[in-house]
Amino acid sequence: MDEIEIPQYFICPISLQIMKDPVTAVTGITYDRESIEQWLKTAKDTICPVTKEVLPSSSCLTPNHTLRRLIQAWSTENASGGIDRVPTPKSPLCKSRLLKLIRELEVPGLYVNALKKLQVLAKDNSKFMEEAGVPKAMVLLLIRCCNQSKTIGVEQALRILYLTWTPSSEIKAAVNENHRIIDCLTWIQGCDIANPVVVKTLAMQVLKRVIEAANTRLLEKLKPEFMEEMLRVLKLKFSQQATKSALQILIQVCLWGRNRSKIVQANAMFELVELELEKPEKNITELIFNLLAHLCSCADGRAEFLSHAGSIAMVAKRILRVSPATDDQAVHILSLISKNAATKEVLSEMLRVGAVTKLCMVIQADCSTYLKQKAREVLRPHSNLWNNSPCIAVYLLTRYQ
Asked: Its annotated pathway (predicted)?
């Protein structure tokens, strides 16, 4: 059997496949809808791939019904030759339908059904829904659920918000104008809710994005209860993703205002050391050490860190065992301790648990020049004490002098 020749104008210029849902851009070039929408979503500049002219937005794509019918007729005619019949595409989502569903969110008897429909639509229309204001509507709905202590619809609202979230100015404005969303997402962590692990993990992922979008003023006003709830998430360890999100959130917020002190006062040092002692995955360890380094830069943080009997030993043990990023933060932590809290007891503890030996090994290992110099800066000021100790081999000490 001769190979069936596909008419050139049936082929999408992007995917080079037969078009299933041909649409014509304002430049006059026809593409398959899925391919051109993906192009516009991911391309740095929204230009026509063929003519290189500017394309305003995906809403300027016009369905080419005539070409679609021709492709369908041709595919049916050649089905015996192995050509798959092109089905009739679904009607594209219109803004008026979205606005109707958003209005129904405010009606007690309709909002659950509206949420279900929006969740289905969000899987394939996230960009269009974001432009129509769906994320802001989800923020307001979640706040309303929190204010009324109702959990019905919370999971769907979180999923829709997560799927339609983009770091746009509109979403940033929605967060900063409705700062109660932070309290709401924190409230979800303590709720007795159906499907708790999934919902609470999703809430943590959304909260991470909210914190990234929040302005400085909002971050500086975070309550101590917020820090306590993040640490409770770490303690409960109900999912790997929730733990990761909680650590990322604490790292983000500790840079602003008095948040570092609030985190320390919430018993963060103890929880972080305990979490690391359970030997979590590498990416979690890196986040733990990042946060510990931030918190050890203040006196209260160092005091709380040293109050845990296993803190220095834990840091020493992780050096040269996890990753270069962990090595950097671990040496930085030991540097902060040795410079600002170098009591005889602390220095003796560093010797006893192998921290001094590990610093000497960093100097010998295939580490960056910067890290080796950092290790030397920790070792040199206390060399007299460590030189006389039987806890460390002489040949190691001679390497940093």
From this structure: Protein modification; protein ubiquitination
